[in-house]
Specification:
two-stranded antiparallel sheet, 6 helices
Length: 171
């Protein structure tokens, strides 16, 4: 199945889930809040489709949440309170969707960095150079600088700090 088809399927399944949550919200009445359950399809769409789809679900969820409360008999003394509650729901849902998107981007970046470092690195036993995927040999410091955020600091270990080691290798 292609990526576009998977995204479309996820979007429509999340719509179905949103419809079920809205129906349950309507059936339970306004005394029972299912506010947190509306986050499930928002989270799902933000992760499986993209941020724009997630934010559209935030708006749709906020509208449906208000409609379910209104149809269940929850009436306010002032008309503007409906708008305020809808805007508050939309803002809350949107902030959570943005956090989910940000978390996914950081997770993806971390996975990419981890993939670069996992596996077997061919290192020369004599000169400690590393062979890259093209087959050319390069300096360990350069490889670490290009593939990680680590900085190399040159030091001499306690074992090598003896006089014999210092005379055998030029620093």
């Amino acid at each position: 199945m292609s990526t576009a088809a998977k995204k479309t399927r996820s979007f429509f399944l999340a719509l179905c889930l949103l419809a079920i949550i809205a129906w349950l919200d309507y059936m339970t009445g306004y005394e029972v809040s299912l506010f947190l359950f509306y986050l499930i399809p928002i989270w799902w769409v933000t992760r499986s489709v993209n941020l724009a789809a997630g934010l559209s679900f935030c708006l749709l969820s906020a509208v449906i949440l208000r409609l379910a409360d209104y149809e269940a008999g929850h009436h306010f003394s002032r008309e503007w309170i409906y708008w305020e509650r809808g805007a508050t729901g939309f803002i809350t849902f949107s902030v959570i969707s943005l956090y989910v998107h940000s978390f996914d981007r950081k997770l993806s970046s971390a996975k990419t960095k981890l993939k670069q470092l996992e596996g077997i690195l061919p290192i020369c036993m004599v000169c400690h150079r590393i062979m890259d995927k093209n087959g050319s040999w390069g300096d360990l410091d350069t490889y670490l600088h290009e593939h990680t955020a680590a900085e190399v600091e040159k030091r001499v270990c306690p074992h090598c700090s003896g006089a014999k080691a210092l005379t055998d290798y030029s620093l």
